UniProtKB/TrEMBL annotation:
Name recorded for this polypeptide: SDR family oxidoreductase
Sequence similarity: Belongs to the short-chain dehydrogenases/reductases (SDR) family.
Organism: Hymenobacter negativus
Pfam families reported in the protein's UniProt record: adh_short
UniProt keyword Chaperone present: no
Superkingdom: Bacteria
InterPro entries assigned to the protein according to its UniProt record, in alphabetical order: CBR1-like, NAD(P)-bd_dom_sf, Sc_DH/Rdtase_CS, SDR_fam
Record keywords: NADP, Oxidoreductase
PANTHER family: (+)-NEOMENTHOL DEHYDROGENASE, SHORT-CHAIN DEHYDROGENASE_REDUCTASE
Protein backbone atom coordinates (compact mmCIF):
# COMPACT_ATOMS: atom_id res chain seq x y z
CA UNK A 1 0.00 0.00 0.00
CA UNK A 2 1.28 3.42 -0.99
CA UNK A 3 1.94 5.47 2.16
CA UNK A 4 2.34 8.96 0.68
CA UNK A 5 -0.45 10.92 -0.97
CA UNK A 6 -1.31 10.20 -4.59
CA UNK A 7 -2.58 12.72 -7.14
CA UNK A 8 -4.09 12.03 -10.57
CA UNK A 9 -3.75 14.92 -13.02
CA UNK A 10 -5.47 14.70 -16.40
CA UNK A 11 -4.00 16.39 -19.46
CA UNK A 12 -0.67 16.37 -17.65
CA UNK A 13 1.88 15.91 -20.42
CA UNK A 14 2.32 19.65 -20.94
CA UNK A 15 1.30 23.12 -19.83
CA UNK A 16 -0.62 23.68 -16.62
CA UNK A 17 -1.21 19.97 -16.08
CA UNK A 18 2.48 19.11 -16.21
CA UNK A 19 3.46 22.05 -14.03
CA UNK A 20 0.76 21.15 -11.50
CA UNK A 21 2.18 17.63 -11.33
CA UNK A 22 5.68 19.03 -10.87
CA UNK A 23 4.67 21.34 -8.03
CA UNK A 24 2.68 18.62 -6.25
CA UNK A 25 5.61 16.24 -6.68
CA UNK A 26 7.88 18.78 -5.01
CA UNK A 27 5.56 18.56 -1.99
CA UNK A 28 6.34 14.84 -1.75
CA UNK A 29 3.14 13.67 -3.44
CA UNK A 30 3.19 10.73 -5.86
CA UNK A 31 1.84 12.06 -9.14
CA UNK A 32 0.08 10.13 -11.89
CA UNK A 33 0.28 12.03 -15.15
CA UNK A 34 -2.50 11.15 -17.57
CA UNK A 35 -2.46 11.98 -21.27
CA UNK A 36 -4.24 10.80 -24.40
CA UNK A 37 -1.05 9.13 -25.69
CA UNK A 38 0.82 6.74 -23.41
CA UNK A 39 4.19 7.77 -24.82
CA UNK A 40 3.51 11.43 -24.01
CA UNK A 41 2.43 10.56 -20.46
CA UNK A 42 5.46 8.38 -19.86
CA UNK A 43 7.84 10.96 -21.29
CA UNK A 44 6.39 13.64 -19.00
CA UNK A 45 6.65 11.31 -16.00
CA UNK A 46 10.25 10.53 -16.88
CA UNK A 47 11.11 14.24 -16.76
CA UNK A 48 9.78 14.43 -13.22
CA UNK A 49 11.47 11.20 -12.16
CA UNK A 50 14.76 12.70 -13.34
CA UNK A 51 14.47 15.39 -10.66
CA UNK A 52 13.50 12.97 -7.90
CA UNK A 53 9.70 13.06 -8.09
CA UNK A 54 7.73 9.82 -7.76
CA UNK A 55 5.80 9.98 -11.04
CA UNK A 56 3.83 7.56 -13.21
CA UNK A 57 2.49 8.06 -16.73
CA UNK A 58 -0.76 6.50 -17.89
CA UNK A 59 -2.87 6.68 -21.03
CA UNK A 60 -6.17 8.41 -20.41
CA UNK A 61 -8.35 9.99 -23.04
CA UNK A 62 -10.97 11.30 -20.63
CA UNK A 63 -13.72 10.91 -23.24
CA UNK A 64 -13.23 7.12 -23.45
CA UNK A 65 -15.09 5.05 -20.82
CA UNK A 66 -12.71 2.09 -21.01
CA UNK A 67 -9.70 4.33 -20.38
CA UNK A 68 -11.38 6.01 -17.41
CA UNK A 69 -12.06 2.58 -15.92
CA UNK A 70 -8.49 1.47 -16.61
CA UNK A 71 -7.13 4.58 -14.89
CA UNK A 72 -9.16 3.87 -11.76
CA UNK A 73 -7.99 0.25 -11.84
CA UNK A 74 -4.35 1.34 -12.16
CA UNK A 75 -4.70 3.52 -9.09
CA UNK A 76 -6.34 0.76 -7.09
CA UNK A 77 -3.98 -2.03 -8.16
CA UNK A 78 -0.66 -0.19 -8.48
CA UNK A 79 -0.89 2.45 -5.76
CA UNK A 80 -3.84 1.43 -3.64
CA UNK A 81 -5.10 4.95 -3.06
CA UNK A 82 -6.04 8.33 -4.48
CA UNK A 83 -6.03 11.55 -2.47
CA UNK A 84 -6.13 14.29 -5.10
CA UNK A 85 -7.95 14.46 -8.43
CA UNK A 86 -7.07 17.37 -10.71
CA UNK A 87 -9.58 17.47 -13.57
CA UNK A 88 -7.24 19.53 -15.74
CA UNK A 89 -7.92 18.19 -19.26
CA UNK A 90 -10.07 20.47 -21.37
CA UNK A 91 -10.53 21.85 -24.85
CA UNK A 92 -11.58 24.98 -26.69
CA UNK A 93 -13.44 25.21 -30.01
CA UNK A 94 -11.33 24.52 -33.05
CA UNK A 95 -12.02 27.95 -34.52
CA UNK A 96 -11.19 30.49 -31.82
CA UNK A 97 -12.08 31.82 -28.38
CA UNK A 98 -11.80 35.39 -29.62
CA UNK A 99 -14.79 35.71 -31.97
CA UNK A 100 -18.31 35.67 -30.46
CA UNK A 101 -20.71 33.73 -32.69
CA UNK A 102 -23.39 32.70 -30.23
CA UNK A 103 -26.26 32.16 -32.64
CA UNK A 104 -24.06 30.11 -34.98
CA UNK A 105 -23.02 27.50 -32.40
CA UNK A 106 -23.71 24.03 -33.80
CA UNK A 107 -24.91 20.93 -31.95
CA UNK A 108 -21.69 19.22 -33.02
CA UNK A 109 -19.57 21.90 -31.35
CA UNK A 110 -21.62 21.72 -28.15
CA UNK A 111 -21.24 17.95 -28.08
CA UNK A 112 -17.47 18.00 -28.59
CA UNK A 113 -16.79 20.71 -26.00
CA UNK A 114 -19.16 19.32 -23.37
CA UNK A 115 -17.86 15.77 -23.86
CA UNK A 116 -14.42 16.85 -22.67
CA UNK A 117 -15.10 19.80 -20.39
CA UNK A 118 -18.09 18.42 -18.47
CA UNK A 119 -19.35 14.90 -19.20
CA UNK A 120 -15.92 13.30 -18.95
CA UNK A 121 -15.11 15.18 -15.75
CA UNK A 122 -18.29 13.89 -14.12
CA UNK A 123 -17.65 10.35 -15.37
CA UNK A 124 -14.00 10.19 -14.30
CA UNK A 125 -14.81 11.64 -10.90
CA UNK A 126 -17.46 8.95 -10.45
CA UNK A 127 -14.92 6.25 -11.37
CA UNK A 128 -12.35 7.30 -8.78
CA UNK A 129 -14.67 8.53 -6.04
CA UNK A 130 -14.54 5.23 -4.10
CA UNK A 131 -10.78 5.68 -3.74
CA UNK A 132 -11.12 9.34 -2.78
CA UNK A 133 -13.64 8.41 -0.09
CA UNK A 134 -10.95 6.23 1.52
CA UNK A 135 -8.51 9.15 1.72
CA UNK A 136 -8.23 11.01 5.02
CA UNK A 137 -8.18 14.27 3.05
CA UNK A 138 -9.58 13.85 -0.46
CA UNK A 139 -9.38 16.84 -2.78
CA UNK A 140 -11.06 17.38 -6.17
CA UNK A 141 -10.00 20.36 -8.28
CA UNK A 142 -11.97 21.17 -11.43
CA UNK A 143 -10.14 23.43 -13.89
CA UNK A 144 -12.70 26.04 -14.77
CA UNK A 145 -12.35 29.60 -16.06
CA UNK A 146 -13.69 33.03 -15.23
CA UNK A 147 -15.34 32.68 -18.65
CA UNK A 148 -17.75 30.43 -16.75
CA UNK A 149 -18.81 33.30 -14.49
CA UNK A 150 -22.34 34.44 -15.29
CA UNK A 151 -21.82 37.42 -13.00
CA UNK A 152 -18.83 38.71 -14.94
CA UNK A 153 -20.46 38.16 -18.33
CA UNK A 154 -23.54 40.08 -17.18
CA UNK A 155 -21.66 43.16 -15.97
CA UNK A 156 -22.15 46.35 -18.03
CA UNK A 157 -19.63 46.40 -20.84
CA UNK A 158 -18.72 42.73 -20.21
CA UNK A 159 -15.17 42.89 -18.79
CA UNK A 160 -14.39 39.55 -20.42
CA UNK A 161 -14.24 41.37 -23.75
CA UNK A 162 -14.29 39.22 -26.88
CA UNK A 163 -14.14 35.92 -24.98
CA UNK A 164 -17.83 35.11 -25.47
CA UNK A 165 -17.84 31.73 -27.21
CA UNK A 166 -21.03 30.01 -26.09
CA UNK A 167 -19.94 26.37 -26.20
CA UNK A 168 -16.82 26.90 -24.10
CA UNK A 169 -18.28 29.41 -21.65
CA UNK A 170 -21.40 27.28 -21.11
CA UNK A 171 -19.28 24.19 -20.47
CA UNK A 172 -17.46 26.01 -17.68
CA UNK A 173 -20.73 27.30 -16.20
CA UNK A 174 -21.95 23.70 -16.10
CA UNK A 175 -18.64 22.53 -14.62
CA UNK A 176 -18.99 25.10 -11.86
CA UNK A 177 -22.46 23.76 -11.10
CA UNK A 178 -20.97 20.27 -10.84
CA UNK A 179 -18.44 21.62 -8.34
CA UNK A 180 -21.12 23.22 -6.17
CA UNK A 181 -23.48 20.24 -6.17
CA UNK A 182 -20.75 17.65 -5.63
CA UNK A 183 -19.39 19.69 -2.73
CA UNK A 184 -22.89 19.63 -1.18
CA UNK A 185 -23.16 15.87 -1.76
CA UNK A 186 -19.80 15.25 -0.08
CA UNK A 187 -20.21 17.78 2.71
CA UNK A 188 -20.24 15.08 5.40
CA UNK A 189 -16.98 13.55 4.14
CA UNK A 190 -13.35 14.68 4.26
CA UNK A 191 -13.42 15.45 0.53
CA UNK A 192 -13.27 19.07 -0.63
CA UNK A 193 -14.37 20.04 -4.14
CA UNK A 194 -13.48 23.37 -5.74
CA UNK A 195 -13.25 25.08 -9.11
CA UNK A 196 -9.99 26.75 -10.10
CA UNK A 197 -9.54 29.62 -12.53
CA UNK A 198 -5.87 29.44 -13.56
CA UNK A 199 -5.88 32.88 -15.17
CA UNK A 200 -4.87 33.78 -18.70
CA UNK A 201 -1.77 31.63 -19.05
CA UNK A 202 0.99 31.53 -21.66
CA UNK A 203 0.13 28.07 -23.02
CA UNK A 204 -0.74 26.71 -26.45
CA UNK A 205 -4.42 26.64 -25.52
CA UNK A 206 -4.35 29.85 -23.50
CA UNK A 207 -3.09 32.41 -25.96
CA UNK A 208 0.69 32.12 -26.10
CA UNK A 209 2.81 35.17 -25.42
CA UNK A 210 -0.13 37.59 -25.31
CA UNK A 211 -1.43 35.93 -22.14
CA UNK A 212 -0.70 37.47 -18.74
CA UNK A 213 0.62 34.63 -16.54
CA UNK A 214 3.45 32.16 -16.78
CA UNK A 215 2.67 28.45 -16.56
CA UNK A 216 3.99 28.18 -12.97
CA UNK A 217 1.78 31.13 -11.97
CA UNK A 218 -1.20 29.59 -13.75
CA UNK A 219 -0.73 26.31 -11.88
CA UNK A 220 -0.65 27.84 -8.41
CA UNK A 221 -4.40 27.85 -7.84
CA UNK A 222 -4.76 24.14 -8.65
CA UNK A 223 -1.89 23.30 -6.31
CA UNK A 224 -3.25 25.48 -3.51
CA UNK A 225 -6.66 23.81 -3.73
CA UNK A 226 -5.09 20.35 -3.89
CA UNK A 227 -3.19 21.04 -0.67
CA UNK A 228 -6.05 22.61 1.31
CA UNK A 229 -6.09 21.92 5.02
CA UNK A 230 -9.09 20.59 6.91
CA UNK A 231 -10.34 24.15 7.46
CA UNK A 232 -10.18 25.04 3.75
CA UNK A 233 -13.19 25.88 1.58
CA UNK A 234 -15.31 23.47 -0.43
CA UNK A 235 -17.72 24.37 -3.21
CA UNK A 236 -15.86 27.57 -4.04
CA UNK A 237 -14.54 29.22 -7.22
CA UNK A 238 -10.98 30.38 -6.64
CA UNK A 239 -8.07 32.18 -8.29
CA UNK A 240 -4.77 32.74 -6.47
CA UNK A 241 -6.39 32.69 -3.05
CA UNK A 242 -9.32 34.94 -3.96
CA UNK A 243 -12.92 33.88 -4.46
CA UNK A 244 -14.50 34.58 -7.83
CA UNK A 245 -18.19 35.31 -8.51
CA UNK A 246 -20.27 32.53 -9.97
Amino acid sequence: MQTQQVALITGANRGIGFETARQLGEHGITVVLAARRLAAAQEAAAQLKAVGIDAHGIQLDVTKPNERTAAAQFLADKLGRLDILINNAGMVPKETLFVPRTSETTPEEFQEIFDTNLFSVVALTREVLPLLRQSPAGRIVNLSSNLGSLTEHALPGNPLGPFQVLSYCASKVALNMFTVLLAHELADTSIKVNSAHPGWVKTEIGGGDIAQLTVPEGSRTSVELALLGADGPSGHFMHLGKELPW
